[in-house]
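Troubleshooting entry. The earlier prediction with glutathione gave an output that would not parse, so I re-checked the input for stray whitespace and re-submitted. Clean input:
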Amino acid sequence: MITLTTYEWVPDFAAPLMRAFRVRWALEEADLPYRVRTVTLGAEQRSPEHLARQPFGQAPAIEEDGLVLFESGAIALHIAEQSEMLLPTEPAGRARAIAWLFAALNSVEIAVQELAVIDLFHAEEAWTSERRPQVEAFVRDRLAMLEKALGGKDYLEGRFTVGDLMMADVLRILQHTDLLEAYPALKAYKERCEARPAFQRAMKAQMEGFGMAA
Ligand SMILES: N[C@@H](CCC(=O)N[C@@H](CS)C(=O)NCC(=O)O)C(=O)O
């Protein structure tokens, strides 16, 4: 059985957004049982035991039958490989789903994460008044292009895949802003992903893990 390592505690705003959530969501979509191990922020993060699981002292990490794996994208792909719910078996569909997984992390998360870091950690600092408009423009451009690629489809490749799971989870990072309001098809796409029963189960488990209601 998979053991997911996450944090024992994070600030309230981070609880629903933590990268461990996307792993829980993938596990729920794949209908795979898992157990949870927690580490504390601070010394335990940098302990030899935890660095052996996650070389940068971060979360999430998983362990399964002797395999130790870190990076939420690699973990999601590893889980997806065990379930047709997340990855089509047909080679071209599989490759496209993996492309969207990478796009979520490499082309969209890099933009939205910079905005989140500015807004959540540096909002009062003078330099943000110059940098934030550039970052917001970059995010808007990525959102516009993504909405165009989605077109009239329910999911990026028509059916739900691990690529949608990662893309929707990345779009959730913008929840402190109203940026998605300008992209109604993308907003509906994110909400469609969030309405999935597996998402709901994963969110309940994530929040309960931090002693909070979903
Ligand atoms: N690229 C990593 C990022 C992991 C990450 O940023 N984890 C955060 C929690 S959501 C963390 O551990 N932050 C504490 C730190 O970086 O020291 C992944 O996707 O797994």
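This one parsed fine. Helices lie at 20-29, 48-53, 72-80, 91-121, 128-150, 162-172, 184-194, 197-209.
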